[in-house]
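seq as requested:
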Amino acid sequence: MKKLIYILSVIFCLIIVPKSLVFADDTLKLGTFTLAPTAPGTYNVTLDAECRLESAEQKIDRMGGPDFEAKHRGIMESEIKEYLRNCTDPAEGCTTDEATLNTNTQKVMDVIHEVSKKIFGRDEWIYAKTLARYAMRQGFGLSPEGLQKMVESLNPNCPVDLGHYVSTPIYFYPEVGMDIKLSVAGSSPYAIRLNKSGIFDYQNLSYSSVQYGINSPKPSQPSTGKLIERNRLNTELAKIAEDLNFTEKEQDDFVTYWLSALPQANYYSVSLLDRQEAKEVAPWTVKPLPTTEIRYILYFKPLMEKPDDLLNESRFTPSERKGFTVVDIGGIIDW
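struct tokens:
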């Protein structure tokens, strides 16, 4: 255990946060709009608002004390137990045996608490709880290897960056083969030669979409959408794709990606950003101008408990596709 903590602390001191994402087999990924592939899972993601140092410190100053510590330690313990009870990897300590579960939970809590003290320089459990949520919800898991990767992913200058990570592929549907230029968030234009089906080549490989990642300010949570139970996530994501008239390829990409990317939770609040907010979150441009630009940016909020105030149920209404069409299908996770 001490050896793991030492390794994690050493790794943290050597962190360099890569700026681009890994290449996939069937989609060209433009990390921060360059074509330099690197290791996956090392981009900044959203943490709870309380994880900002100043925000956590304000909470401690205002509400600190034994009860405050016990509350956040208890929340962390409950969430780790729930995770270990439902995961399957033995390396993480996953188990349904209550005695073993209690032992494994305490071991993980002690490790994360020590790591949080090294990272934040603070002993309070609110910081350890934040790191535990980060590890579980971003998919690093609670194994020694997963926690090591979690620490490697943190930005040493701002280990609790609140930018909401947006992962989104762009699909092109031209009426004829054409040359286009794509710019994302003010980047230099990137030249793409599309064939009539929207497929393009890069380094002797064919691709069906361009995927990019940006950190975006948090949009306001939509008041409409749907609440999805964990055991219906696959079915409901497919239903959303069907409601929005995704192509077969789009639906497969959408469902496969979010089943993998969404953190473990009992419920998911899922909404669709309106057109204006979607454009602000995903600020790309294509030249020549498409006849139709569509941005489907989903807003996901993982929840451990069913909320008292449910979303107003709404349908996911598709946009009509006419002429040269560019479709952006992505989402953000509100931690």
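Residues 166 and 332 are 5 Å apart (CA to CA).
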